[in-house]
Amino acid sequence: MQEKYPAVVSLPGGHSSEVMTLNHPELPGCVLFLRWSVEVSRDGVVTPRFDLLTKIPEEALQLFPSPPIGGAAEAFHSLRELLGVEAAIESMIRAVSLSPDL
């Protein structure tokens, strides 16, 4: 995703990073963090886990209604269930970039 969307996506730990950051170039300090991990049970059941965390400065929070920012994680999980992981991530990237066809 970093190669496809270099203006928005970064991987702080390189290609083996467990975190992807989504930044809008014109909104410094507003960042979405997508963290992923894989859990393996004793029975060998593999469960991927994705968490979306937000970092929004106080000034920016005053510009946006609470539900869209506060509901970002829930919205991502709903998208993931409907579209799958890759399409949900791309939808979040488009939302962060404020562009429907990035």
Automatic annotation (TrEMBL):
State a GO cellular component annotated for this protein. Answer: chromosome, centromeric region
Please provide the Gene Ontology terms (biological process) for this protein. CENP-A containing chromatin assembly
Coiled-coil boundaries? none
Q: What is the protein name for this chain?
A: Centromere protein P
Which organism's genome codes for this protein? Salarias fasciatus
